Amino acid sequence: IAHGYQEEVVGIMGENFTFPVQIDKKVAEIVWKKNKHKVAEWEYQSEPTYYGSLSSRSILMENGSLTIVNLENDDAGIYELVYWDYVKEHQLNFVLVVLDSLPKPEINCSTSDGELVLNCTANFQGSLNYTWKLGNNPHRYRNQKLSIPVKNVDITTNATCIIKYSQTERSSEISLIQCLP
Q1: Could you read off the pLDDT of 37-50 as tens digits, one per residue?
Q2: How far apart are alpha carbons 131 and 143 in whole angstroms?
Q3: H or E segment at 70?
Q4: Among 22, 41, 72, 132, which has the highest number of CB atoms less than 10 A from its own CB?
């Protein structure tokens, strides 16, 4: 990796975030810095040491990965991993962006041309996965919109929209009877 390369990584407020690092060599020493200040350090055969604002909220593993527990806005910044593999020093740089927590999705519905159309929206900075679930039907529909022929609509059924980003999900539910004119 060329020097000066920075990988952008994204975490969500309130979630646990782990930097995508996997060192597969034998390592003698690991140092993590945030904005040039040391936050975690590990040397062969000793316990990790933590510094600063992350000291009570981070976990450093011997494979180099650093996990931040319960991500906060202030955790955003430039992180640098330096490790020594007995031969030479390696450096990886990350820019951590912290996004707001996920909103509850909004569902609106309309009927046109004999179809009931359900639309799920959520205002979020990242690209979301949308899934619909109808009543107890195990089948999931992976779209932002769901169309059902009006003649097939069971008014006792609830429709649930689930949005997912990273490890986090939020959902909202609507009763189909609300949707019919």
Answers
A1: 999 999 999 999 99
A2: 6
A3: none
A4: 132
DSSP output for 92-131: EEEEEEEEPPPPPPEEEEEEETTEEEEEEE---SSPPEEE
pTM for this structure?
A: 0.73
> For the segment 149-175, what is each residue's pLDDT rounded down to a tens digit?
999 999 899 999 999 988 789 999 999
Structure tokens at 19: 């930097």
- Copy the structure tokens of residue 30: 């690991």
Give the C-alpha distances (Å, rounded to integers) separating 37 from 30, 67, 70, 96.
Answer: 14, 17, 20, 15
Strand 115-121, strand 145-149: pairing: antiparallel
- Between CA 60 and CA 14 the distance in angstroms is 19
Q: Structure tokens of 77?
A: 């910044």
Residue 48: is it exposed, middle or buried by C-beta count within 10 angstroms (0-12/13-18/19+)? middle
* Nearest-10 Cα torsion for 105, 136, 145, 179: -80
d(CA 7, CA 78): 10
- 33, 83 contact by CB (below 8 A): no
Encode pLDDT of 37-96 as tens digits: 999 999 999 999 999 989 999 999 989 999 999 999 999 999 999 999 999 999 999 999
Hey, what are 25's tokens? 């060599």
